[in-house]
Amino acid sequence: MSTSTGQKILEKIQQIQDVSGFRELHWEGSFAEYLDIVQADPRVARSAYQRLYDMIVSHGYEEYTRHRDRLVHYNF
Q1: The pLDDT of residue 55 is above 70
Q2: Computed over its alpha carbons, how large is the radius of gyration of the chain?
Q3: Which of 24, 29, 55, 75 could hold 33 in an S-S bridge, CB 3.0 to 4.6 Å?
Q4: How far is 55 from 21, CA to CA, in rounded Å?
Q5: Coil, strand, or helix at residue 74?
Q6: Does residue 1 have a pLDDT over 80?
Q7: Which candidate, 37, 33, 53, 57, places its Cα nearest to that of 45?
Q8: Domain map of the chain by residue range?
Q9: How far apart are CA 46 and CA 42, in angstroms?
Q10: In terms of pLDDT, which residue wins out, 31 or 15?
């Protein structure tokens, strides 16, 4: 009984997989090709933390001073 249940689960997974979408999102190439891409758009080489910061800052922020401390309020 568990074999047929396992087979059903595998069939469901195969139905929802998008192979062409996966290939589009997961680029494969040489290191030289990657360097060409980075040269064309340096943002490609940013880390996950830098991308997260970019998303936060894109919504705007305000700088202000309180008790001689420079504070930043992010609008997200």
Answers
A1: yes
A2: 23
A3: 29
A4: 24
A5: strand
A6: no
A7: 37
A8: 2-74
A9: 8
A10: 31
Compute φ and ψ for 29, nearest 5 degrees: -175, 180
Say which residue the tokens 């830098």 belong to. Answer: 50
Contact 72, 61 (CB under 8 A): yes
DSSP-derived 3-state class of residue 72: strand
Cα 33 from Cα 30, distance rounded (Å): 5
Name the percent of the chain in helix, strand, coil, to the closest 5: 60, 15, 20
Pairwise CA distance, residues 56 & 46, whole Å = 15
Token pair 């609008």 in the structure block, residue: 75
Closest by alpha carbon to 62, among 54, 53, 72, 52?
72
Residue 3 has pLDDT above 80, yes or no: no
pTM, to two decimals: 0.53
